[in-house]
């Protein structure tokens, strides 16, 4: 029997002693102010037990982790639109790179790079009168937690400096792959990314991907086929130009965000969420990657 609390405690002690903690994202000015010494790890087993260390009940900016939840919402609205307007191949490039989008005629490589997530935002903006409220309701609903909210200071901070996202959205529009106005889509996208959650809440939100589409209240929110496909995209595209490294070192489908969060899961077994705001050179949490590698090494639990 594995003592999961002991495993988490051991990882916590090790990472808290580490001096090189990476660098917080600064291209969104509000994220640069976060204390680099924060660290949280939260594990939710399908069997019901939960374990946590560090600040696992402190909120932080979820950023690109929301792209998985937005994809799940969009997939439950109109799956055909997604399949026609996006590809599902790893890009091998940073999340905000634009060159491939130009070469590939406005079809983003996958829904987790920024251009792909902006197409998903467009689908959500088309579907709802109040997309921000609908997305928030969706996240609150799958987690059973009405305290989850946006951090509008972070959204404003990104809007003021989101030049590359404006470039991506304009490029998409020029190729006819954006149905709404650039400003309307990005207004939603920046707010979506500003969602503020704890590691515990993230584990709860992603539970449906480890549980064949049933969320923590046992209601089915996604078909098994869509869960299988979204998990596959997390494995191949969840870490941008570091997706191969994450599969190699950790061996789980997962998703990172520039707020320093990472969520990963083993279908039928568990969801694990980590937060450490310092990023590595590829924009993924430096100690978060290390902690998850240690977790799957010590427990020998991975998809491989
Ligand atoms: O669009 C952006 O650049 C941010 N709102 C999200 C980027 C992000 O989290 C990439 N993930 N590592």
UniProtKB/TrEMBL annotation:
Catalysis: reaction(s): L-glutamine + H2O = L-glutamate + NH4(+)
Main enzyme class: hydrolase
Positions contributing to substrate binding: 64, 114, 158, 165, 189, 240, 258
Entry GO MF terms: glutaminase activity
Classification via Pfam families: Glutaminase
InterPro entries associated with the record: Beta-lactam/transpept-like, Glutaminase
GO-annotated biological processes: glutamate biosynthetic process; L-glutamine catabolic process
Domain of life according to the entry: Bacteria
Keywords: Acetylation, Hydrolase
Subunit structure: Homotetramer.
NCBIfam families tied to this protein: Gln_ase (TIGR03814), PRK00971.1-2 (NF002133)
Protein name as catalogued: Glutaminase
Gene: glsA
């Amino acid at each position: 029997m594995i003592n999961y609390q002991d495993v988490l405690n051991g990882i916590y002690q090790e990472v808290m002693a580490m001096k090189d903690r990476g660098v917080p994202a600064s291209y969104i000015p509000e994220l640069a102010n976060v204390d680099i010494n924060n660290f949280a790890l939260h594990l939710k087993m399908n069997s019901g037990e939960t374990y946590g260390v560090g600040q696992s009940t402190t909120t932080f900016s979820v950023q690109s982790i929301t792209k998985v939840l937005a994809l799940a919402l969009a997939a439950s609205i109109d799956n055909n639109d997604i399949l026609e307007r996006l590809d599902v191949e790893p890009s091998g490039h940073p999340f905000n790179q634009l060159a491939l989008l130009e070469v590939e005629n406005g079809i983003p490589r996958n829904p987790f790079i920024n251009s792909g997530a902006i197409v998903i935002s467009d689908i959500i903006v088309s579907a709802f009168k109040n997309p921000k409220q609908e997305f928030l309701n969706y996240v609150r609903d799958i987690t059973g937690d009405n305290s989850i909210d946006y951090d509008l200071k972070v959204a404003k901070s990104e809007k003021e400096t989101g030049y590359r996202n404006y470039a991506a959205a304009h490029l998409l529009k020029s190729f006819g792959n954006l149905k709404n106005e650039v400003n309307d889509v990005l207004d939603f996208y920046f707010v979506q990314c500003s969602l503020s959650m704890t590691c515990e809440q993230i584990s709860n939100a992603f539970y449906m991907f480890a549980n064949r589409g049933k969320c923590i209240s046992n209601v089915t929110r996604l078909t098994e086929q869509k869960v299988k496909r979204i998990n596959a995209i997390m494995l191949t595209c969840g870490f941008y130009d570091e997706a191969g490294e994450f599969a190699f070192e950790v061996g789980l489908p997962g998703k990172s965000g520039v707020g320093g969060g990472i969520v990963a899961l083993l279908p039928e077994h568990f969801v694990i969420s980590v937060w450490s705001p310092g990023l590595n050179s590829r924009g993924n949490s430096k100690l978060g990657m290390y902690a998850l590698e240690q977790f799957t090494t010590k427990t020998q639990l991975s998809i491989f």
